[in-house]
Amino acid sequence: MTQASPPPDSGAPQRFPVVVVGAGPAGLTVGNILRAAAVDCLVLETETREFIEQRPRAGVIEEWAVRGLEKRGLARNLLDRAELHSACEFRFDGERYRFPYAELTGSHHFVYPQPLLVTDLVREYADVRGGQIRFGVRDVRVHDIDSDRPSVSYTCPETGEHRIVHCDFVAGCDGARGVTRAALPPEQVRIARHDYGIGWLALLAEAPPSADGVLFGCHAKGFAGQMPRSPEVTRYYLQCPPGDDPENWPHERVWAELRERLGASGVPPLTEGRLIEKRVLDMHDYVVEPMVSGRLFLAGDAAHLVAPIAAKGMNLALHDAFLLGDALVAQLTSGDDSGLGGYAQACLRRVWDYQEFSQWLSEVYHGAAAGDPFRAGTTLARLRRLFTSPAAAAAFAEQYLGTAARY
């Protein structure tokens, strides 16, 4: 929620040039960029530090994003510990088809679970660069964003006191359910939304991956996917009805469906293990335009959500953060406002490019299970083309790795 002006402060008002709402990859990256330039900022996070460092999320980072983190001194652990993936594998029509995208592009995917990246970013921001962060805050509100004196208020979890932070800019990085997106004046913003009408059962298994890369099973019973996270833990997905109850998927049913949908001639059996997470994700996308209102700048899932179909969400969050962090530094250190002025437009080019690819890939994944013989046939044609047409293979590889979106 937002209010035109903040209520009274229980203590002395605080001031920072930038307040960052949300300590995910986007917010922490923005904070680190500001601190590296000796710009003070305050990060506000509703969860505890322990929670955000353990919350299971994405794990695939595109090479351009890794280079962006490396350029800003934020990739040391990632480069030492991440797995490099150079190929993925499609399984359809009873066969397996390996897609060596690194051979086509010279680029890789880095697999580094988001909790590890968040842990690195928190440590660098708070413990190394001396950035200010408040965990466990409540009742966060954004005020006066269309004035030159915006502020953010919150309730201190330790004392229960109501605090006000005055600032020059607010970076809204608090995700799909955060308060900053709601602070945008509805008459100034458009939210474009797409619902795929399908669900994915998201699973974490205490089991090593059953192949050395990502697996995509395009099956008449529904999509299945394997996404390695570590040598001991593997992410799996199973297509299911939207809104399905995870309790409808006991251990035996999950592994039976994974075996069937990821099965192919000559492949070894899946390595099974205890399921440590089960939740249903309803596949949908949204894009907020223009991502900016006055002194409030949205980034990451606060501004756009792309379904995990193409593993693009964390990469888009980092892209926003690089642009926003650099633009804020330029404004606050040298008065150059060109980056902030062009921020939304620069972000949205990549956002819409990734949304389009996600839609295309959704048809590849889910068309065989649509119950429509025509869609099933065209889906099979698309899949075969990837392995018979060098031009189609190159185009897919560029989009899959994000190298086609050079903005």
UniProtKB/TrEMBL annotation:
Q: Where is the FAD-binding domain?
A: 16-357
Q: Name one GO molecular function term.
A: 4-hydroxybenzoate 3-monooxygenase activity
Domain of life of the source: Bacteria
Tell whether Flavoprotein is among the UniProt keywords: yes
**What stretch or stretches form a coiled coil here?**
none
The record's listing under Pfam families reads: FAD_binding_3
In its keyword annotation, does this UniProt entry include Transmembrane helix? no
Which Enzyme Commission number(s) are on file for it? 1.14.13.2
InterPro entries reported for this sequence = FAD-bd, FAD/NAD-bd_sf, RIFMO-like
Keywords, ordered alphabetically: FAD, Flavoprotein, Oxidoreductase
NCBIfam families, alphabetized: PRK08243.1
PANTHER family from the UniProt entry: P-HYDROXYBENZOATE HYDROXYLASE (PTHR43004:SF3), TRK SYSTEM POTASSIUM UPTAKE PROTEIN (PTHR43004)
Protein's name according to its UniProt entry: p-hydroxybenzoate 3-monooxygenase
| Native species | Streptomyces africanus
